[in-house]
Design a protein that fits this description.
globular, 59% helix, mainly alpha, two-stranded antiparallel sheet
Length: 152
């Protein structure tokens, strides 16, 4: 599996979604999640929960690509760039639609989800990157690198 992941990353080296993931300071965003609290909340018995970092990144993909939870579930099974962006491992079990929905609901209920989205947008904007979410049947999000015109 590690070789497959390495080959996939190499093949997608120029992918704009993966390049954007590398520009984001995830620690600043995930500080809002209060890791110990979330790990305890999602670990109340049952099977081991999915990595909450990967789950939040999946919610970003749903937001940017205008995906319902069932469509996001499907995309996480077939799109290597989505899997790599989130940090899931190819071949491992992926979250289903209801798991993604519950995770989103818990973040929304806590009030941290909008703050985390704002921090993502702030960081990208500071680097001149604007994400224009997909509309309707469009399958790709547009990532625009803004340029600043300077007068001489």
């Amino acid at each position: 599996m590690q070789l497959l992941m390495a080959n996939a990353k190499a093949a997608l080296a120029g992918d704009s979604l993966l390049a954007m993931a590398d520009t984001i300071n995830w620690k600043d965003i995930e500080l809002h999640m209060q890791a110990d609290y979330w790990q305890a909340m999602f670990r109340k018995g049952g099977r081991v929960p999915y990595d909450y970092h990967a789950m939040f990144r999946a919610l970003l993909l749903a937001r940017w690509f205008c995906l319902s939870y069932p469509k996001l579930e499907r995309a996480l099974r077939v799109r290597i760039d989505f899997i790599l962006f989130c940090g899931f491992v190819i071949g491992n079990k992926m979250p289903d639609a209801s798991t993604l929905n519950r995770f989103n609901s818990k973040l929304e209920k806590s009030g941290v989800l909008p703050v985390m989205y704002e921090e993502i947008e702030r960081q990208l904007s500071a680097q001149g990157i604007e994400v224009c979410p997909a509309k309707g049947a469009v399958t790709e999000v547009v990532i625009v690198k803004k340029t600043h015109a300077y007068e001489s």
